[in-house]
Amino acid sequence: MAGYPYFAVVSRDGKPIFEEWFDSRYAAESIDQAEPKDDLRYFHQLLVHKSLDSLLDNAPDKANQIYLKVIDTFNEWAVSAYLTGGQTRLLLLHDRSISNSDGIRSFFQEVHEVYVKAMLNPLYIKGTKIESKDFKSKVRSFAVRFL
Question: What is the pTM of this model?
Answer without folding.
Answer: 0.83
